[in-house]
């Protein structure tokens, strides 16, 4: 490409497709805007790109084969992070629902917590 604006349709993950716009940025660099939707087919992605940028031509992007190993790794890592965050959120919500500690208070270092309050050791 010569740096002019164009659209690309590329495989995403799990057999889905995305489009991206590539064009000049206001600062003289290159702007890349990714579709916010995954599509079931390359043709659906092409229609979505055409609806967003009706006058911009499509670039030849190769055979449209399966996603690269790097793309699959990024997707797997993203999924792992999201699942970890959801697990942590669930853990904290469950802990809060069950009341946290037995007395509802935390112990200060060097002190015991009894029903009447902190008592010097």
Fold and architecture overview:
There is one protein chain. This protein has 121 residues and is of the alpha+beta class. It contains two helices and five strands, in the order βββααββ. It has helices at residues 42-52, 69-97; strands spanning 6-11, 17-24, 30-34, 111-114, 117-120. The strands form two sheets. The protein has a three-stranded antiparallel beta sheet. A two-stranded antiparallel ribbon has the order 4-5. The chain is elongated and about 75 Å long. The N and C termini lie far apart (75 Å).
Short description:
By secondary structure, the protein is of the alpha+beta class. It contains two helices and five strands.
Q: Tags for this entry?
A:
single chain, 121 residues, alpha+beta, 3-stranded antiparallel β-sheet, two-stranded antiparallel ribbon, 5 strands, 22% strand, elongated
């Amino acid at each position: 490409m010569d740096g002019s604006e164009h659209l690309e349709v590329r495989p995403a993950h799990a057999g889905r497709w995305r489009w991206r716009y590539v064009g000049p940025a206001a600062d003289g660099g290159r702007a890349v805007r990714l579709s916010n939707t995954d599509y079931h087919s390359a043709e659906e992605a092409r229609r979505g790109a055409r609806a967003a940028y009706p006058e911009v031509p499509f670039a030849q992007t190769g055979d449209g084969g399966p996603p690269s190993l790097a793309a699959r790794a990024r997707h797997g890592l993203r999924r792992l992070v999201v699942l970890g965050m959801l697990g942590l959120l669930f853990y904290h919500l469950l802990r809060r629902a069950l009341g946290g500690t037995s007395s509802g208070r935390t112990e200060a270092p060097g002190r015991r917590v009894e029903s009447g309050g902190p008592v010097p050791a």
